Input
Amino acid sequence: MEYVTAVPHPRSEAAVPARSGRRSLAVALLSGALGAAVALLATRQRWAEGTATVAGGDFPLTATGSDVTGVPAALAVVGLAAMVAVFAVRRAGRFAVAALLALSGAGIVTAALAGVADGSALDEKAAAATGDTSATVQALSHTAWPYAAAAGGVLILLAGLLALRYGPRWPAMSGRYERGTERPRRAARPVDPERPEEIWKALDRGEDPTGA
Output
C-alpha cells in the first residue's frame, strides 16, 4: 500500500503573501484617501452653534470645524502626503513614513473629539459681536461633524497600521524615478547630407550634422 504525502507547491506558498500584500495595499489606499477626504470635508462644516445677547436681542452664532481647531485639516494633508511618500521610500524610511501616517490619523481623532465640547471659538465670536471681552455664548450645541472628522482620522489610522504591518510587501517606485538615475539617451541617427531637412532638424537638436 502506497502512502502519498501532500507537499505544498512552492509557488502557491509564495502567492499567499503576495495576495495579502495586494489586499492590504488596496484597503490602505482606500482608507487613507477616504479618511482624508472625510476629515477635510468635516472641518468645513458647522461644528457648534449658539447665541450671543446683544442690545437688539439674541444674535445667532456658528463655528465651523476650522474655527474650532485647524489640527484635523492639517493632519489630513500630512496623511495624504505620507500615503504617497510610503511608495517612494523603502525599508526604514517606509516604516517611518507609515508611522507618521498612523500618528496623523490618531491626531485627527484626538483633536476632533476634543472639539466636541470646545466652545472657545463661539465665545470669541460672542465677544466680537457684543463688544464685551467677557461675553460668552449661550445655548451652546454641537453637530455630528466632529465625529465625522474623528471617523476620517480612524480610517487614516487604519491605513497607517496596515502600512506598518504589510508595507514591506508593497511595491516601490521604479528605479528610474529615484534621485540620481537618468534614462539612457538613444544614439543620434546619422544625418543624410543629401536631405537638407535632416540637417536642419539636427541643428535644432543641437547636434553636429557633419558628425565631426
In short: The two ends are 82 Å apart (CA to CA).
